[in-house]
Design a protein that fits this description.
Length: 64
């Protein structure tokens, strides 16, 4: 489970970086693991941003 304590601007910025980043470690298995982790992060961030009260999550301690 991923717990966010981010305001909307920070969540948007992190989502944008997670979308644009391309792993290039030189190790195909490590790159695949990193791609999978970034995909999970993107899914969780999108879900966080779609919540109607996502801007107040950091104050209420809500978890995902």
């Amino acid at each position: 489970m991923i717990v966010f304590d981010l305001n909307r601007n920070d969540a948007d910025a992190l989502l944008q970086h997670a979308k644009e980043f391309t792993p290039q470690t030189g190790d195909a298995r490590e790159d695949a693991r990193l791609r999978d982790a970034l995909l999970e992060l993107r899914v969780a961030l999108v879900s966080h941003l779609e919540e109607p009260d996502s801007s107040s999550n950091s104050k209420s301690g809500r978890q995902m």
